[in-house]
Amino acid sequence: MKYFFHIRVVLSCFFVVLLSACGGGGGSSDRGDSAGLESTTFASEPTVVSGVAATGAALDGATVEIIDASGNLVDVGDVLTGSDGSYQVELPDDIALPVIVRVTPLVGPPLLNIVAPPEDGSTAITANVNPVTDLVSSSALGDADSSDAGALAGALSSVDTSTLEATGDEVLQRVLGSSVQYSSFANDPNFVAKTEASDTIPSATDAILDTLAKQAEDSGTDIKTQLKNLEEQETPSKLLEEPAFQVGLIGEMIKGGAASEDLEAQLQDIGAIDEPVEGVGDVFRAVIAAVPALIQTVTDDSTALADDADLLEIATDAAVDMLADTIDEKKTRFAADADDLVSAINSPSLQDAVTKVVQSSVVPTLAAFAGGDATDDTLQGLQDLAGQVTTAAATVASSFEFTETSTDVSSLISEFVSTNVAPSSEVTAQDLADASASGESIVVDVGDVNDIRGSLEEFATENVDLIEGTIDDLIQTVPSGIWDEVVWDSFNWG
Question: What is the pTM (predicted TM-score) of this model?
Answer without folding.
Answer: 0.86
